[in-house]
Amino acid sequence: xxxxxxxxxxxxxxxxxxxxxxxxxxxxxxxxxxxxxxxxxxxxxxxxxxxxxxxxxxxxxxxxxxxxxxxxxxxxxxxxxxxxxxxxxxxxxxxxxxxxxxxxxxxxxxxxxxxxxxxxxxxxxxxxxxxxxxxxxxxxxxxxxxxxxxxxxxxxxxxxxxxxxxxxxxxxxxxxxxxxxxxxxxxxxxxxxxxxxxxxxxxxxxxxxxxxxxxxxxxxxxxxxxxxxxxxxxxxxxxxxxxxxxxxxxxxxxxxxxxxxxxxxxxxxxxxxxxxxxxxxxxxxxxxxxxxxxxxxxxxxxxxxxxxxxxxxxxxxxxxxxxxxxxxxxxxxxxxxxxxxxxxxxxxxxxxxxxxxxxxxxxxxxxxxxxxxxxxxxxxxxxxxxxxxxxxxxxxxxxxxxxxxxxxxxxxxxxxxxxxxxxxxxxxxxxxxxxxxxxxxxxxxxxxxxxxxxxxxxxxxxxxxxxxxxxxxxxxxxxxxxxxxxxxxxxxxxxxxxxxxxxxxxxxxxxxxxxxxxxxxxxxxxxxxxxxxxxxxxxxxxxxxxxx
Length: 548
Hints:
Elements: E1 2-4, E2 22-23, E3 52-56, E4 62-66, E5 77-78, E6 82-83, H1 111-114, E7 141-144, H2 146-149, H3 153-159, H4 161-166, E8 171-174, H5 205-217, E9 221-227, E10 230-232, H6 236-240, E11 255-258, E12 261-268, H7 274-291, E13 295-299, H8 306-317, E14 325-328, E15 341-343, H9 345-355, H10 364-372, E16 381-383, H11 389-395, H12 398-401, H13 404-417, E17 423-425, H14 451-466, H15 468-472, E18 476-477, E19 483-489, E20 494-500, E21 506-509, E22 518-521, E23 527-529, E24 533-536, E25 541-545
Parallel strand pairs: 1-24, 7-8, 7-17, 8-9, 9-13, 13-14, 15-16
Antiparallel strand pairs: 2-6, 3-4, 4-5, 10-12, 11-12, 18-19, 19-20, 20-25, 21-24, 22-23, 22-25
Helix pairs in contact: 3-5, 7-8, 13-14
């Protein structure tokens, strides 16, 4: 017999267009207010925020302490001490596996680092970690493009934190907050003029602190976009440390490059230089202790060597009491050694081929899982999206390429429910009808409400957060050419998901494991008795639980 399931009554509007291992690293040995020969102890007051001072390890080695926002020294971090599994690295090595001289001569002599004193008059207690960082498997990420979000910078985001929270978001991802270079510039937000300054176009350091504090008050973590591969040509490192950059035989600093594509507006950093690595790690720590962000989304992570990311993220994860979200914008499988997330580049391409004119089979989902999760640990996930700042600028809004708004929602269900964490790009939740194009200064988001679309996202995210099986279970596939169908199960939860990826009604013949079974609609809890077939309307999705 055939079971016909009516599509949702909501009108969506018409389309318009493993185990981690890390190594605690030696921090910068930069001059601090306390210059006495006796190493200071944890809690010593009145040091200069952001600086470090030498300290003695119990075994006689040299360590370093960072001055926290409350003007007290943190714990003494001793180089060569492993955290958890050393991953085969030997004591006395840094995170790259290279032997380092652990004396004051190895200190990074960077005046911009040494002299960066933070005004903490209104900072709040950034030295106290937030308690809202979710398990990486439970995240719902919301991307904020600060240039396009509003004309009010950080304050514009603060003004909409309640609406972001209402979606069910628990991680807010801010695109780069640092100032943009002017020399040879294309005005890209990924062209960093200074790693320890706030872009004044968005507001002040205190404004950023207020944004992050406001998100924390609403139960949302905040991660910052970080550009480690290259800097602007007018970054102070260019003149102060030219050896920190890749140079040709004549000593000329080289532009950024990915494969054969050259980015002439940026200068490529040299990851063979250990002092540059330490300066980068210091800058990453600076923001955590200054504004209390909860991690990073790292740009172009597949270009720097993986040992740098193991080194850098190992250092960050060694910070006492800090739970961090670390997200790689990359597809390199080795990234799972250092990050929580890889980026769903190829899944987005698969969605375009499944929902677009190519009519690729729904079984592409399983092919993507098989290829993109090799080497992943239990808590690793892909971030899968139907739009973000890159593809929105290139392809336009998701409804333009995925079969209208109904197709875009169906694609979101696949991206969020199969084996990933949900991701929303600002404006997606109102089906913004126009693209936000690079360098994101030409359009602002018109936040006119689109309640049917917003409510649909709220409903989908609510089910994601309620269902342990969706967040923890491994999908068992029953897909065919036109329908992506899978079951996910956890200890106390079992879910069946079916998504028609075609813009036509499809009859899905149920396999024996699903035929003549009873389920409950995941959204309204009504009972659904399946027969041997299900008729699915164009782009219709179903998510059902085994128990009411």
